[in-house]
Amino acid sequence: MSMETLFTKIISGAIPSDKVYEDDEFCAFKDINPAAPVHVLLVPKKVIPEIGAAAECDEGLLGRLLLTANKVAEQLGIAESGFRYIINSGAHGGQEVPHLHLHIIGGRQLGWPPG
Fold this sequence. Notes:
Elements: H1 6-12, E1 19-22, E2 26-30, E3 38-44, H2 59-75, E4 83-86, E5 102-106
Antiparallel strand pairs: 1-2, 2-3, 3-5, 4-5
């Protein structure tokens, strides 16, 4: 039985979003509270509550998550100038939705440290 999350509702179209990419495994859409000119969430359609809950069987999906993020960064026009990927995990990590997602952030000079 698959868990329903805010992101599964966005993926299904039950909640509107500004999708920028979708394939059989992933969906990417603009963040509603962007931290930079480009701020997109890349979400696997398989619900994994957080990165720490990923299992051995998710190894391929996690690799494809990063490769798909590269594709989306290229599509968004930030691949050459640079960007940042962020995966938050748990309450102290700033995760708000219990569904693994990767933030793709760019479009301006990003500072360090991030938090």
